[in-house]
Amino acid sequence: MKKTITVILAIMLGASVWVTGCSQQEASPTPSVTPPQTSTEAASTSVGEILDYKIIGIDAGSGSMLKTAEVLTHYGLDNWQLVEGSDAAMTAALTQAYAEKQPIIITGWSPHWMFKKMDLKYLEDPKNGFGGAEQIHTIVRKGLKQEHPAAYQFLDAFHWEPTDMEAVMVQILDGEQPADAASEWVKNNEEKVGKWVEGIQPVNKEKLTIAYVAWDSEIASTHVVEHVLEKRLGYEVELSQVQTGPMWAGVAIGDVDGMVAAWLPSTDVSYLKKFGGQIEDLGPNLDGTKIGLVVPAYMDITSIEDLKN
């Protein structure tokens, strides 16, 4: 049974661009994309003027948005507006712009299916405002080890690669339900899954709650974790879809048992500082992540510094 704590407004595009992979949520209205200009206009107009100084973001309060706001200030780009929305609204706006070869700047991260479906690039970050490569960590509540040792052992052992996560995300994008995509991935990766649960004694329908944010990457990882907990270890798992702040707070106060969606050491650092003494960090479940400003490859800007022009 899945419990949705936060429901986001449904995406409605003029031509109805539907983005699969966030089927567990309704998303915010898709931000408008500035129509492309003629070559003559573009030659005399800055990228800021073309885009009305707007960067398409995701849900307010997410580590990615907080970090991007810091980076804009760091580069002296306070005239730029970071448009709040959701993962689905952002990818819908990107998909529409990309199909029409329009300019757009988004808050992006890897791994994500959009890099497999579109030719995109990160803007260079010469001041290292976003930091280097990150990891996604597993965070659990205090006391989980004593109360649910089997779940704790598995969550501590859970670790996969960006290509694994992308495989699940692409299946969801192509129309699979998240639970079905997770089930198929587990079936096709028995050796890896076997190592996660090796030596763990299954339980008899003990209940767990796992929180996640409605990003395509976290939808993929959380449903894989749910599948293994239920089908291999005998738990009854309730998924709680929340925004980033409530996800961390839920683990800290014990309302949920854990999550596999903490981007560290940079993106979610403010939440780690706030709740670090109230949670247990089991370490990374995925290495080699990245966040930054992303544009289609056909745009002729290459650096965040270019946004000053």
Automatic annotation (TrEMBL):
Cell compartments where the protein resides: Cell membrane
Domain of life from the UniProt record: Bacteria
Gene Ontology cellular component terms for the protein in this record: ATP-binding cassette (ABC) transporter complex
Keyword Cell membrane assigned: yes
One Pfam family recorded for the sequence: OpuAC
Residues annotated as signal peptide: 1-21
Main localization of the protein described in the UniProt heading: membrane
Residue ranges of domain ABC-type glycine betaine transport system substrate-binding in the record: 51-188, 207-308
Keywords for this protein: Cell membrane, Membrane, Signal, Transport
GO MF terms, alphabetically ordered: amine transmembrane transporter activity; carnitine transmembrane transporter activity
GO biological process: choline transport; glycine betaine transport
Keyword Membrane: yes
UniProt-listed PANTHER family: GLYCINE BETAINE/PROLINE BETAINE TRANSPORT SYSTEM PERMEASE PROTEIN PROW, GLYCINE BETAINE_PROLINE BETAINE TRANSPORT SYSTEM PERMEASE PROTEIN PROW
Protein name in UniProt: Glycine/betaine ABC transporter
